[in-house]
User: What shape does this take?
Amino acid sequence: MSQLVDLQSWPRRELFEFFSGMSNPFYSVTFRLDVTRLVRFAREQKISFYYALVYLAAEAVNSVESFRYALDGGRPVLLDRRAPSFTDLHPGAEVFHIVTLPLEETIQSFCAAARAKSAAQTALLDHEDSQDLIFFTCLPWVELTALTNERDFDPDDSVPRIAWGKYAEEQGRYSLHISMELNHRFVDGLHVGRFCEALTRLIESL
Assistant: This one.
């Protein structure tokens, strides 16, 4: 579900129109995130660290209104919610697939649903492209410091793209880099900061 934005009263109107005039309104940003509590929580609960971070990052995205703006017929709309769509691998496989499912009520139920759906999926994709998604990927073999995604270039694309690599341990703490690709028509650095703060709060509250 979504609601049409009233351009006349929208505080972001001038910025939206400014970046709409650019042939490439996208930008990338990467920041370090302390995931110590999440590493320990995933081990305690015997759940996937990857699925758990997808869940928490999706919740953090949805908590920041600017990440929920999209375009419908050229007009900005505010989405009620975005759902995660993430790459995954079957055990022993070298070809990934993309799993899409709504957020469950708890992190444990989401991880169980993600594991079951991924295990059962045989196709690369099981959904149509939609602007109400969040694209996630992970490169657990390297410490990721930046990443760009392939795309059919469309300045109206509002889907956040979020990636990370393997976490590193230093003096008993674990951290990794979160890389994001975003449309500047909707999301500024301020909102990235709010996303980072929200994600940190969610991790520390586990």
User: Anything to note?
Assistant: The domain at 22-204 is CATH 3.30.559.10 (Chloramphenicol Acetyltransferase). The chain has a mean pLDDT of 96.
